[in-house]
Design brief:
Blueprint (H helix, E strand, L loop, with lengths): L7 E6 L2 E10 L2 E8 L2 H33 L2 H8 L3 H11 L5 H11 L4 H8 L3 H7 L13
Antiparallel strand pairs: 1-2, 2-3
Length: 145
């Protein structure tokens, strides 16, 4: 079951609630199970994110450079072996790419609206909102320090 923290899920084993931490970096999946407290899972997840933060940032910079050279999300996605949606989200997060709709989506999310509320107000699907939203803390940290 999902928790309020990205990348941390709970499950029951022998009627005991435990937590699992997941993090994907460069298509590599890191997973550790068996945490008995949410706090210990959060601590491990934060340490893991910190360890791979530079790797993620380097990739965001490389994606931005490729996009600026090609002006094509499709070509950038092919070059980095990523989906166009992921490339678009990274470019939106980095402030390199926007559409009127992505600007509106991010303004509403920053104002405190939920993804569902934004979708309803703009008459689009939740998937569209997620595709146009900048990455938020805990999803995929590509912001500059």
């Amino acid at each position: 079951m999902k928790t309020e923290f990205a990348g941390i899920t709970s499950y029951f084993q022998n009627e005991v609630k435990k937590y699992r931490v997941d993090l994907v970096v460069n298509r590599k999946h890191y997973q550790k199970r068996g945490f008995t407290t949410l706090e210990s899972a959060r601590k491990y997840r934060n340490e893991l994110e910190e360890q791979y933060k530079k790797t993620i940032q380097v990739n965001a910079d490389a994606i931005v450079r490729t996009y600026l050279n090609s002006s094509s999300i499709r070509e950038t996605a092919i070059h980095h072996n990523m989906s166009r949606q992921k490339v678009r989200k990274i470019l939106i997060t980095e402030g390199v790419y926007s559409t009127p709709q992505s600007v509106k989506v991010n303004e509403m999310l920053d104002s405190g609206y939920t993804t569902q509320e934004v979708a309803e107000k703009l008459s689009v699907s939740v998937g569209t909102v997620n595709n146009l939203a900048a990455y938020r803390k805990g999803e995929y940290d590509v912001r500059k320090e």
